[in-house]
Amino acid sequence: MKLCFPVTSDQGINSTLYGHFASSPLFLIYDSVTRQTSAIANCDEKNPYAGCNPFLALRGRHLDGIIVSGIGDDALRAMNLCGYKVFEAGTELVSENIPLFEENQLCEAVVLNVRGEGKCSDEDGSSSGCDHDHDHDHDHSDECDNDCDSCTQDCVGAPPS
C-alpha cells in the first residue's frame, strides 16, 4: 500500500502534514510493504520553476490514498478524476495517520460545492474560518532543482490504479 501526504519538509514518518494540498512544498510517499518513505517536489519535473503542480508531480503514481489536512474543491475533483481517493487526516502527524488509514478510520474527502468552502478567504478578503498560517515562504526552485530528478521516471507513465 502506498500513501501520499503533503508536507513542508521530509522528516520521514515524523513529518507534519501541510495545510494546503495544492501548494504543499513536498509530497511524502509512504510504502507500507517496505516501510520506507520518499519525498517528491510539488512541481512539474519538466518545468520546475513554474511553481506548484500536484497534478503533474503525482501523475503516474500508484497510490492507495492521499491523506490531507486541507484541500479545495477543485483540487479534490481533479485528484478524484485522476483516480485517487483523498482522505481527511485525523491528526497532523504522518506517523499517526498511517494506522488510522489502515484501520479505515479516516473519512474520504467530499466535494463541498459551497462557495468559499475549501478556501481560506472569499473574494472580498473576508475569512472563511481558516485557522492556520499562510506564510509558508517556500522556494520551489531549490526543491525542484534537487528533487524532481528523483521523480522523473514516475512522473510520466500509466495512470494511477
UniProtKB/TrEMBL annotation:
Domain Dinitrogenase iron-molybdenum cofactor biosynthesis positions: 14-101
Annotated Basic and acidic residues bias: 130-143
Gene3D superfamilies noted in UniProt: Dinitrogenase iron-molybdenum cofactor biosynthesis domain (3.30.420.130)
Name of the featured protein: Dinitrogenase iron-molybdenum cofactor biosynthesis domain-containing protein
One Pfam family this sequence matches: Nitro_FeMo-Co
Record-linked InterPro entries: Di-Nase_FeMo-co_biosynth, DiNase_FeMo-co_biosyn_sf
Annotated signal peptide: none
Region entry Disordered, spans: 122-147
